[in-house]
Amino acid sequence: MSVVALVPAAGRGERLGGSVPKALVPVRGEPLLVHAVRGLHKAGCVDAVVVAAPPADVVSAREALARAGVNALVVPGGTSRTQSVRLALAAAATALETVDPAEPSIVLVHDAARAFTPAEVIRTVVAAVAAGAPAVIPVLAMADTVKLVDAAGVVIDTPNRAGLRIVQTPQGFAVETLRRAYAALAGDAEHPGASRTDPTDDAGLVERLGVPVGTVPGHPHAMKITTPFDLAVAEAVLS
């Protein structure tokens, strides 16, 4: 069994307000991307990592990882998250060539912005897929009340938060499950009349296939770094 982690990191991160792509924003002297890829390797269950970087910053991403002594195959990403994952998935077999000639059997998709996900979360996701689950995501229970509002901002419903979860990464998949999901997405793109909005995570694509998506406990340290406030929190946690 081989495990490949895909890291879509081609976003510009406008809300973070940095002068470089979000994945290259430093936290305590090292880019988020370095922290994220190092964390995947430290989990001890990931055989290879593929990073989809902004096309104009592929060299910068490679150099940042090399300076940190962290191994990853860096490929140009796309204009959307799903495009970047698709490109990274296509490169997964190449990433494995030096460690395992076989096709990957488990694929993780991990946000570079969740750079401080604990190793135990990564291992738990991999173990659940290895045990037979076609798709698994780490989640946290919601502490806040959630409101559903209409286009005018008027509340139309208050969902029961007991059944709601905050979703994190890495999300884990049997490789054929993820490939099927992206093949179906490509089919939608070829038929605009039947197209649907891209979901915000890969589990959403798998759900469209009718494949059950399991959950495992997430962790507060797997927070997504999106704003300057998030960055300050990450700096504080690491200190």
In short:
The protein is an alpha/beta fold.
| Tally of DSSP helical segments | 8
In percent terms, what proportion of residues is strand?
15-25%
Look at the structure and give the mean pLDDT: 90
Shape: globular
Summarize the helix and strand pattern as letters.
EEEHEHEHHEHEEEEEHHEH
What attributes does this structure have?
239 residues; alpha/beta; Spore Coat Polysaccharide Biosynthesis Protein SpsA, Chain A; 8-stranded mixed beta sheet; two-stranded antiparallel ribbon; 12 strands
General description of the model:
This protein has helices spanning 32-42, 58-67, 81-90, 92-96, 119-130, 175-190, 202-208, 228-238, and strands spanning 3-8, 26-27, 30-31, 48-53, 73-76, 106-109, 135-141, 148-149, 155-157, 165-167, 171-174, 214-217. By secondary structure, the protein is α/β, with parallel strands linked by helices. The protein has one domain (3-238): Spore Coat Polysaccharide Biosynthesis Protein SpsA, Chain A, CATH 3.90.550.10. The strands form 3 sheets. Strands 1, 4, 5, 6, 7, 10, 11 and 12 form an 8-stranded mixed β-sheet that branches. A two-stranded antiparallel ribbon has the order 2-3. It is globular. The model has no long low-confidence stretch (mean pLDDT 90).
Produce the secondary structure layout:
Layout: E1 3-8, E2 26-27, E3 30-31, H1 32-42, E4 48-53, H2 58-67, E5 73-76, H3 81-90, H4 92-96, E6 106-109, H5 119-130, E7 135-141, E8 148-149, E9 155-157, E10 165-167, E11 171-174, H6 175-190, H7 202-208, E12 214-217, H8 228-238
Parallel strand pairs: 1-4, 1-6, 4-5, 7-12
Antiparallel strand pairs: 2-3, 6-11, 7-10, 7-11, 8-9
Helix pairs in contact: 6-7
